[in-house]
């Protein structure tokens, strides 16, 4: 786990015209020193400026970055972990004749790409982001793990980021220099707010490429950016990973409990690859407990695994007692941090600064404290991040599934107009099943958040979002309320309607038009899971409660539920299995 930043210039004229020069680059680079305290190194030549802060887990004495290839033609900066890199080395050595000099996954990536090209990316297992460049500045390739666990931001010179507001399989553009960094704060050039990008982020209409800043994008999970110099410009192409989380409502085969256990166990075992001690985040939820169980079976029994739990003085939100009991049951060494409202208020601005997100929620504030607390004992943890996205665990998934269930009592529909007509003739409330979700999460005036919901559960979210956005969005009530507070009712509705085409395109990303229908309730869970995993997960979850809260305190997080073994299993599952 590390942090890097850099600038690739198409020629020396572009470099000489860069505002602020090398001093400004170094000042910006120091803003992410928290991402690695093992060492800091630079690489500078006429067309490349690179800075790297390393937090070492494998081959702590080797693997220094920026790393230059053995033939002296390419250089890499890398953040994250590739867990299967040692298994890839025999093939790379056979085809290249290279003898590896370190045990570092960085060297495997660099030499592997030189012989296998971008096809290497399909073989990688891990959480990572990296950039490989030719030393003469003529070519660059950037890649990020499938689910966007590790961050990577880019600022191509003078690009209009609105071209990324809608999903395409490929985007082409030109520029004269490209800035890049693990966090936006390490981008050297001046930042200017992008109104739509900022509003989309704050109200919760997340998108995977645009950011709240003009000309700054994030590389989406699984995507590849390639740049080659020609005619005094970089000609760039950004190619999306267009594979959905699941392809079909019916699936291609339902996994058994044994299948899932085997997949998770393999994922946990891969993520124990480390030369330094690892711990685990443990809550009252089943996701972190499943990881803890597998970790306890796979780890060296001579040293107790350290678990880390955050508790709250407000009893309704506190799960610390059950988490601590479970840790003791597994023979772990539990560490507990209790927080009150004052602590969360204190850490809110720190969470915003660390995540580079402006959010009206406090869960990121708690994770900031947990990261700080945990780093006092270990420098890496396994986390349950990704379980809810992959296995449909969030309340919004249950709400969507209820919508699908409720609409089955009505005439089948295939588009939004048919759905509106069906509800006009047979409105919600006409059937007993229509009130099941509301009764479950709002009985006796219970707080829906404490009851495990994120909406009132009447179905109005879907009706309103279909009218405004053209998609069934389970969180539209809170999105609309936040937007109206910021803009006023009339302006809010106008602005939300203007986002419809963009939102629809990201809902359908990875699907062919004849495979799904936006307003067909039968497709609603499939579409929401894919949209959430490709938009909310890399933008909100990994930043607000994942990588950024951990790395703010120089702590690495590893995510077993976002492995290839788990995602390959989930890809085949039907709706009813989740």
TrEMBL record:
Gene3D superfamilies: Glutamine Phosphoribosylpyrophosphate, subunit 1, domain 1, HUPs
Domain spans labelled Glutamine amidotransferase type-2: 2-230
Keywords, ordered alphabetically: ATP-binding, Glutamine amidotransferase, Ligase, Nucleotide-binding
Annotated Pfam families: Asn_synthase (PF00733), GATase_7 (PF13537)
Protein name (Swiss-Prot/TrEMBL): Asparagine synthetase [glutamine-hydrolyzing]
PROSITE patterns reported in the protein's UniProt record: GATASE_TYPE_2 (PS51278)
GO molecular function, one term: asparagine synthase (glutamine-hydrolyzing) activity
Keyword Flavoprotein (UniProt): no
Source organism of the structure: hydrothermal vent metagenome
GO CC annotation terms, alphabetical: cytosol
The keyword Isomerase belongs to this UniProt entry's keyword annotation: no
EC number(s) recorded for this UniProt protein: 6.3.5.4
Family: Belongs to the asparagine synthetase family.
A GO BP annotation: asparagine biosynthetic process
């Amino acid at each position: 786990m590390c942090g890097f930043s850099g600038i690739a210039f198409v020629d020396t004229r572009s470099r000489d015209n860069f505002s602020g020069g090398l001093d400004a680059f170094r000042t910006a680079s120091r803003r992410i020193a928290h991402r690695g305290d093992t060492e800091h190194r630079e690489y500078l030549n006429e067309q490349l400026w690179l800075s790297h802060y390393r937090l070492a887990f494998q081959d702590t004495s080797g693997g220094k970055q920026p790393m230059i290839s053995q033939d002296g033609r390419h250089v890499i900066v890398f953040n994250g972990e590739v867990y299967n890199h040692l298994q890839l080395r025999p093939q790379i050595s056979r085809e290249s004749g290279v003898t590896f000099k370190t045990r570092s996954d960085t060297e495997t990536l660099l030499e592997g790409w030189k012989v296998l090209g971008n096809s290497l990316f399909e073989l990688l297992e891990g959480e990572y982001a990296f950039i490989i460049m030719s030393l003469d500045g003529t070519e660059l390739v950037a890649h990020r793990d499938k689910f966007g666990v590790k961050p990577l931001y880019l600022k191509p010179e003078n690009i209009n980021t609105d071209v990324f507001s809608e999903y395409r399989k490929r985007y082409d553009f030109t520029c004269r220099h490209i800035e890049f960094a693990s966090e936006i704060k390490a981008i050297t050039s001046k930042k200017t707010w992008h109104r739509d990008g900022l509003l989309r982020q704050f109200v919760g209409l997340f998108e995977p490429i645009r950011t709240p800043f003009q000309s700054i994008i994030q590389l989406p999970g699984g995507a590849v950016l390639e740049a080659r110099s020609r005619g005094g410009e970089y000609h760039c192409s950004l190619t999306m990973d267009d594979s959905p989380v699941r392809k079909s409502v019916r699936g291609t085969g339902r996994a058994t409990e044994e299948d899932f256990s085997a997949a998770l166990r393999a994922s946990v075992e891969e993520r124990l690859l480390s030369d330094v001690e690892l711990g685990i985040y443990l809550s009252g939820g089943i996701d972190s407990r499943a990881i803890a169980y597998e970790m306890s079976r796979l780890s060296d029994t001579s040293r107790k695994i350290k678990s880390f739990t955050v508790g709250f003085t407000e009893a309704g939100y506190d799960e610390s007692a059950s988490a601590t009991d479970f840790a003791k049951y597994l023979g772990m060494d539990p560490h507990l941090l209790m927080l009150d409202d004052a602590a969360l208020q204190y850490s809110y601005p720190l969470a915003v600064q660390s995540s580079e997100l402006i959010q009206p929620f406090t869960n990121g504030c708690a994770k900031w404290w947990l990261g700080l607390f945990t780093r006092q004992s270990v420098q890496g943890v396994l986390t349950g991040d990704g379980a809810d996205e992959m296995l449909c665990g969030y309340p919004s998934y249950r709400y969507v599934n209820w919508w699908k269930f409720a609409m089955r009592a009505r005439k089948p529909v295939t588009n939004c107009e048919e759905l509106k007509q069906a509800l006009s003739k047979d409105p919600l409330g006409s059937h007993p099943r229509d009130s099941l979700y509301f009764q479950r999460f709002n009985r006796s005036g219970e707080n829906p958040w404490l009851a495990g919901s994120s909406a009132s559960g009447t179905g109005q979210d879907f009706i309103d979002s279909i009218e405004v956005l053209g998609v069934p969005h389970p969180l539209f009530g809170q999105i609309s309320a936040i937007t109206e507070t910021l803009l006023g009712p009339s302006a809010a509705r106008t602005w939300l309607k203007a986002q419809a085409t963009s939102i629809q395109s990201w809902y359908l990303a990875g699907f062919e038009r004849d495979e799904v229908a936006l307003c067909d309730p039968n497709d609603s869970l499939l579409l929401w899971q894919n949209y959430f995993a490709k938009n909310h997960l890399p933008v909100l979850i990994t930043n607000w409660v994942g990588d950024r809260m951990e790395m703010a305190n120089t702590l690495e997080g590893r995510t077993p539920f976002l492995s290839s073994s788990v995602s390959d299993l989930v890809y085949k599952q039907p709706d009813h299995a989740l």
